[in-house]
Design goal:
- The protein has 87 residues and is mainly beta.
- 6% of the residues lie in helices and 29% in strands.
- The protein is built from one helix and six strands.
- Strands 1-6-5-4-3-2 form a six-stranded mixed sheet.
- β3 and β4 form a beta hairpin.
- The radius of gyration is 22 Å and the shape is elongated.
């Protein structure tokens, strides 16, 4: 049985570990990597004890959707000079 159910928003992203983490009562951290979330896994484990938590998240948020197309800009490209002729 899971020690607790924790929303992904309540976890912290740890850049060094490349994992979402949450404090464990033993003093270490529960952790789960993005790859596991993308595969639908929802268990974050503590590497120092036998406890684990269930991570509550939206699977679609972690499945690779293509990025949205770039928006078309209006006006001249950045860094160019526009000449205006006055009659």
């Amino acid at each position: 049985m899971s020690y607790d159910d924790v929303e992904i928003e309540d976890m912290e992203w740890n850049e060094e570990m490349q994992a979402f983490t949450y404090p464990c009562p033993c003093g270490d951290l529960f952790q789960i990597i993005k790859k596991n979330l993308k595969m639908g896994q929802e268990i974050a484990r503590c590497s120092s004890c036998s406890l684990y938590i269930t991570v509550i998240y939206n699977l679609e948020d972690f499945q690779g959707r293509p990025p949205p197309p770039p928006q078309k800009k209006t006006g001249p490209p950045k860094g160019t000079t526009t000449l205006i002729t006055v009659a």
